[in-house]
């Protein structure tokens, strides 16, 4: 059994970016990283742009200007403005080359065909220059930049509709267990509704991994070997839940062994999630998470999360850990470091009752995990505690 720190280090050291390229429609590229530098095909803004509703002025020494016309956003003509003349102009409209500045309408008195301004303004006031954000041919965004909503907006403003990004992993979730049935069926004695697949799929979707398939297998050795073999050949990441402990019908470990998956580790000194397995075959990563739902999800956030980030070229990113003040007392049983379901708010954290690794009800209302290390056996109210903020 290895420590949490060792297990995290092993995941960090053995997971790498996928590096393949794929082309995405810009609106579907959120969360991806740019595979190449992106250069702009246009100046942005493409013309001198008015930043305010007001008047475009050909400056002179006086404070009175003759009004000679109007330009709206989208108009595609350029009136010739002589010294001492002005045109009415609106935000986003093209400022004629013969205008020096735009004055906002609040600073202007309009008398018939003339306007009076309070005081003279500087050249280029309220005019966004051509190419202020990026010039034609220049670098718009660097390779490896993560595509946030703002980045997608920016690239769209440059007329880009498709973008080359790093591939995201193809992921299989595999559930195991004879006791598991689908929703809409009536529970028989000894049966429970299968829930880990929906839970993990949703955790993956939250992190913007959408290439996810779900597979359900019975506690049957041959079926386990056949299915896992197929998935390991075809997927970048296989996440199994259940069947990884020591029971007679826990076939996952034996099947992975038979398939010659290289075992990076099996069993971590932690609660929940002791029987966590992590291995690799060729370029496919395999995590076998414990079947207990809260254990599976905790292991997902602490270990699989790092692997996913590394596959996406986000080097060794873990979930944020902060110090928070505990609003609860907690007594640790046993000698395993523990991740506790908790609610974090404004610098304080409440440790919830019901910490068993099967306890979904408490996880359902948690937004954080409090980490209790080896060295600590109890937490007292007002103690600072290490708190992991979940990506919900
Ligand atoms: N003799 C020992 N027994 C156990 C040990 C041990 O060290 N010695 N470890 C315990 C710990 S800790 C854990 S955690 C569990 C993990 O067992 P498995 O990973 O083999 O998981 P299963 O036995 O298949 O299932 C455990 C539990 O979770 C439920 N489950 C499984 N899959 C799902 C699913 N997809 N959706 C909802 N619930 C699921 C399953 O019905 C069981 O109740 O082993 C302990 N045993
Ligand atoms: O490690 Mo298990 O998840 O404690 O119940």
Automatic annotation (TrEMBL):
It catalyses: adenylyl-molybdopterin + molybdate = Mo-molybdopterin + AMP + H(+). Catalyzes the insertion of molybdate into adenylated molybdopterin with the concomitant release of AMP. Pfam families: MoCF_biosynth, MoeA_C, MoeA_N. Its cofactor is Mg(2+). One of its GO terms (molecular function) is metal ion binding. This is Molybdopterin molybdenumtransferase. Gene3D superfamilies: MoaB/Mog-like domain, MoeA, C-terminal, domain IV, Molybdopterin biosynthesis moea protein, domain 2, Molybdopterin biosynthesis moea protein, domain 3. Keywords: Magnesium, Metal-binding, Molybdenum, Molybdenum cofactor biosynthesis, Transferase. It is an enzyme of class 2 (transferase). Residues 172-310 form the MoaB/Mog domain. GO terms for biological process: Mo-molybdopterin cofactor biosynthetic process. Pathway: Cofactor biosynthesis; molybdopterin biosynthesis. The keyword Nucleotide-binding does not apply. Belongs to the MoeA family.
